[in-house]
Amino acid sequence: MGRMRKKVDLPFKMCSVCDRPFVWRKKWEKVWDDVKYCSDRCRRAARSAR
Prior knowledge:
Blueprint: E1 12-14, E2 21-23, H1 40-48
Antiparallel strand pairs: 1-2
């Protein structure tokens, strides 16, 4: 098994909509470069702002 990492050691990004930091998640492992929003709420807000 892999070594557990502390949350402070995980990579993070800033959300494009709310400018808050969000941390890497296992489900984003393969698409981390494409992730722009911290939540579905921010994704919807970005779509409605177009």
